[in-house]
Amino acid sequence: MPDDESEAVEDTEEAEDGMAVLEAKVAELQKELQYSQAEIANARQRGQRDRSEAIRFGAAGLASKIIPAIDSLEKALANENGDNEAISNGVRMTLDSLKSALESEGVTILQTTGEAFDPSRMEAIATVPASEGQEVGLVIEEIESGYMLHDRVLRPAKVIVVSD
Q1: Which of 64, 81, 148, 159 could form a disulfide with 139 if both were Cys (CB 3.0 to 4.6 A apart)?
Q2: What 3-state DSSP class applies to 123?
Q3: Are 132 and 111 a contacting pair, CB within 8 Å?
Q4: What is the longest distance spanned by two Cα atoms in the chain?
Q5: Residues 82-93: tens digit of each pLDDT
Q6: Phi, psi dihedrals of residue 161, rounded to the nearest 5°
Q7: Roughly what angle, to the nearest 10 degrees, separates helices 60-78 and 85-104?
Q8: Is residue 97 a contact partner of residue 70, using CB atoms and an 8 Å limit?
Q9: Contact 129/149 with Cβ under 8 angstroms?
Q10: Dist. CA 63–CA 105, nearest whole Å
């Protein structure tokens, strides 16, 4: 009879050990499920963020292609000699149309002249020594306009900056 009791105790211990193993496995699977659910939620958020960025900055490629045309039209107007006013008016209207199309997509022209030099939005192509009363680091001339699409620089402005 003592053998029956020891077998019963062993069976109980084995059952408890098996139960503990199963409980540990359940806890591990629940943890994996939580990680998987969190990963799915993160992937959804990432996808939504990527879609909204693609919509917001989708015009960047086209804007980058149009900006050189705007530069050319501005140069044509700057070099006009007044011989043909109709052509000048047409160029001006085309230029205004392109600029307003870019503005409607969120593209803005950087204002640089008279501002402090900002290397994240401007490229200094030359420096001039400071004369009396001029502040060091001030943009005194813009050589080429810079453009932003919302908060992203499409093209930095090329400027001349006052130095020491």
Answers
A1: 159
A2: strand
A3: no
A4: 124
A5: 678 888 899 999
A6: -120, 145
A7: 160
A8: no
A9: no
A10: 9
- Of residues 84 and 121, the one with the higher pLDDT is 121
Tokens of 113: 């002249």
Copy the structure tokens of residue 8: 């019963």
**Structure-token pair, residue 17:** 């050990």
Q: Quick one: tokens of 12?
A: 């109980």
Tens digits of residue pLDDT in 11-48: 777 778 888 999 999 999 999 999 999 999 999 999 99
Q: Which residue has the tokens 């044509």?
A: 76
**How far apart, in Å, are the Cα atoms of 141 and each of 105, 115, 128, 131, 133?**
27, 10, 10, 15, 16
Closest Cα partner for 109 from 61, 162, 154? Answer: 154
What's the whole-model pTM score? Answer: 0.67
